[in-house]
Amino acid sequence: MRGILPQRRTETLHAGRESIPGARYFVTFATIKREPWLQSTFAIKAMLTALLAWHDENEGLLLAGCVMPDHVHVLFRLGPQLNVGRCVARWKSQVRRACGYTGGWQRDFWEHRIRPDEEFEAYGLYLF
Question: What is the pTM of this model?
């Protein structure tokens, strides 16, 4: 079928998503079109500043993070106030503003709630 554009299916990312205060999460979010604008030292510092500010304000517990040129991985324990989506939105917004970048982030993000019976250390090793 020529002329028909593929449709985004990001709504499936929301299926079954729940935010549980105190639960551990592993999230990944990427830049638009995977543009490598996060490779600058300034962008890396902006992301780390956003994550540490969130942690210092007791919004949750930052366990590990990794900034790649076109995406970010964060391992954290969710606090009582914000849901997972609000945490990610906050980080994205703060970094984009700090960098003054006109591009930005892909819509949504990938998340996985780490269940109590899962190997938690494997996620930290992946980031390392």
Answer: 0.85
